Task: inverse folding
């Protein structure tokens, strides 16, 4: 019996040993799995960190990606425009048009949008006098937008080059009530001038609008003006326009003046001036006076912006007594502003002036003040009220003193000339003096309170 019991325990011991071994192996295996699990968790944590970092980097790049996409769209649009321009130039032979013998005096660009009938009248007026001098004044039509009638009309002429400004960027006005059209016009001006100065490399550009006729001596006038512009850096631009150029206020087509007021409406500027203006060109275009009144604030757009002292920087403009352009556009973005009173009565010069034979050195900065002072000295002072009545009774030129803007406006309204000021300068004024003709030949000088002092004239002289 003892022997059998001993054998049983022995067998039990033998059975327990494998069990213990298996438990030890299982424990070792579990330890390995635990270590591997810990490693896996650590790896997952690192992967999560890297994933989050990558997500952050992707988020940071999203803005750049969007900007690049917008830039790509703009470049694609520009490429389409360039391809169209190249095809147009190839078809019309611009190189032949410009000629190999003589460099152009200036490019002539007509700014157009959606008035095909007006544009046709303007082109015909220009070609009437431009054809003999086409190599010196290459003609461009720059259309803002995609009006098919304007494009078709421009492309129907072989004597010009067509450009198209397609602007898909939305317009955001700065003030409530402003018209989007004026923002588009300002963008168009900048684009067209950049094209002509920087892509076509012209040294000067004459800017016209699609509702203008030109005088017979228009191109000779600007050729003479180009020489002044080149040698006198105090001249900012040459204009063909006189704001007080109505028939009753002008007489002599040979007379030119310097002015502190930018006239616009047919003007020429140089590339050096555009280099200065292009980077800071303003957003919009002149707004109608009615809107300015309702907003009760001074609103400045591109032509008024050019009239600011900070942009003129002491420079002046050359203008004629008798206009070399006539604006017939009663209907347009300005809604016929002042057309009946100021634009329709403008006298367009009809005399073929030989500008090449004329000595215009009196218009240079170092000579003009003395020349203009001489005109003033030979005028008769008129004082008191009833300026018009007193002027009627005096032979020869007269001058009338005004003390301030309200005084000027009162006198100007009596004669019917422009009363408007911009940045402290009356329209057409030179050193505060506005000059116009009265009763055919008589000059009337409206003289500011400090104008005589600026011109070196003592009171009573």
Result:
């Amino acid at each position: 019996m003892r022997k059998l019991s001993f054998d049983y325990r022995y067998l039990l011991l033998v059975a327990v040993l494998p069990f213990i071994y298996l438990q030890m192996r299982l424990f070792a295996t579990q330890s390995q799995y635990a270590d591997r699990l810990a490693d896996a968790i650590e790896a997952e944590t690192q992967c999560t960190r890297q994933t989050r970092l990558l997500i952050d980097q992707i988020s940071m790049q999203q803005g750049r990606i969007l900007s690049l996409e917008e830039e790509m769209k703009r470049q694609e649009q520009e490429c389409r425009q360039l391809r169209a321009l190249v095809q147009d130039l190839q078809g019309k032979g611009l190189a032949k048009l410009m000629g190999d013998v003589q460099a152009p005096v200036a490019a002539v660009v007509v700014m157009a949008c959606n008035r095909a009938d007006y544009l046709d009248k303007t082109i015909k007026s220009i070609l009437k006098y431009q054809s003999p001098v086409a190599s010196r004044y290459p003609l461009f039509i720059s259309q803002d937008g995609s009006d098919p009638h304007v494009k078709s009309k421009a492309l129907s002429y072989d004597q010009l080059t067509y450009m198209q400004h397609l602007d898909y960027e939305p317009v955001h006005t700065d003030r409530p009530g402003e018209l989007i059209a004026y923002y588009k016009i300002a963008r168009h001006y900048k684009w067209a001038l950049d094209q002509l100065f920087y892509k076509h490399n012209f040294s000067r550009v004459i800017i016209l609008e699609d509702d203008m006729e030109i005088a017979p001596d228009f191109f000779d006038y600007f050729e003479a003006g180009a020489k002044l512009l080149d040698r006198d850096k105090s001249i900012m631009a040459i204009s063909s326009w006189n704001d007080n150029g109505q028939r009753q206020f002008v007489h002599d087509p040979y007379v030119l003046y310097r002015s502190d007021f930018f006239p616009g409406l047919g003007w020429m500027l140089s590339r050096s001036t555009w280099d200065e203006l292009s980077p800071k060109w303003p957003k919009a275009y002149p707004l109608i006076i009615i809107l300015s009144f309702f907003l009760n604030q001074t609103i400045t757009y591109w032509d008024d912006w050019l009239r600011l002292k900070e942009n003129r920087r002491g420079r002046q403009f050359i203008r004629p007594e008798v206009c070399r352009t006539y604006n017939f556009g009663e209907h347009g973005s300005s809604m016929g502003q002042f057309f009946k009173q100021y634009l329709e009565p403008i006298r367009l010069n009809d005399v073929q002036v030989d500008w090449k034979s004329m000595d215009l050195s009196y218009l240079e900065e170092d000579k003009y003040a003395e020349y203009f002072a001489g005109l003033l000295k030979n005028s008769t002072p008129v004082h008191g009220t009833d300026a018009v009545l007193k002027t009627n009774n005096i032979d020869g030129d007269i001058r009338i003193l005004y003390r301030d803007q309200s005084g000027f406006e009162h006198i100007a309204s009596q004669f019917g000339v422009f009363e408007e000021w911009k940045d402290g300068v009356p329209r057409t004024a030179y050193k505060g003096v506005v000059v116009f003709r009265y009763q055919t030949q008589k000059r009337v000088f409206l003289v500011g309170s400090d104008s005589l002092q600026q011109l070196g004239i003592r009171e009573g002289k």
Summary: The first helix runs from residue 2 to 92. The chain has 15 helices and 16 strands.
